[in-house]
Amino acid sequence: MEIEKMFIVKISWDTNEDRLREYFKSFGEVIEAIIMKDRATSRARLFGFVVFADPSATERVVLKKHVIEKFASEQP
């Protein structure tokens, strides 16, 4: 089984990992959704990763701009 990890930037302070997973599951099976945190403060660093079970899901994701929690996310 191939998997595909996407780097997601500009994540809102209000978005948590469950919300990130919920949003991106419409593009395919999400294996993991991670929002990176500062080690010292445990605050979100406003970027993260979404791992899909099917690499073709990433192709569907990059075809449009995404707004999660009123904040535009981008894929570099």
From TrEMBL:
Top-rank taxon: Eukaryota
SMART domains in the record: RRM
Segments forming domain RRM: 4-76
GO biological process, one term: regulation of translation
Organism in which the protein naturally occurs: Punica granatum
Keyword Repeat assigned: yes
Annotated protein name in UniProt: RRM domain-containing protein
InterPro entries: Nucleotide-bd_a/b_plait_sf, RBD_domain_sf, RRM_dom
GO molecular function: mRNA binding
Keywords: Repeat, RNA-binding
